[in-house]
Structure of Ribosome hibernation promoting factor:
Amino acid sequence: MEIVVTGRHTQIKQKFRDVVESKMNRVTAIAPDTQRIQVVLSHEGNPRLADTAMRVELTVIAGSTVVRAEASSIDDLSALDLALDKLTLRLRRTRDRRKDHRRGYESIQPVDLGEAEPEVHEEEEYVPQTASQAVAGDLEPGESVEVQVGDSPIVIRRKLHIAEPMTIDEALYEMELIGHDFFLFVNSETNRPSVVYRRHGWSYGVFEIERAKNL
């Protein structure tokens, strides 16, 4: 199993790397087929957000299955513990769901709008732009861009993914894997761009998009 630890806007201390190495056995105990664990530590420079200044994003890759979790706290080690608790819970849910519901489809790589970029080792340079400029321009598949809107603390990330068509049930499953409250996909039954989202309890909703016809 490969463990990759990277930092964004912060330096990775050896103590943090050592703690990560020692705690990842919690992951392999639940998901022994794990091939790669990506750990991204990032720092929020805004002093008003000191209580959540450190954020840890964990991504487990086991074949074509991807499970994610993230958490923020006042320091890196407590953020790691919080994220790891969330991750192990989702891994258990995934394992139990596989046992209870034998699916006849191959798990599809999830479209994760907030996916960490573990290959980035240097700080990204934010270029002040307007909100419309932040989502404009062409991107290659898998390429992402982050821009800061003017002098505000708002940062917008845009990333292009190639989406495989799937059913609503499959989209809900993938949403649970990455731990988001929504999931963007192409509905294989209607061929429309769609979003499933969590409402409350075990209640979910679905948005489908249809281009308006010119009258």
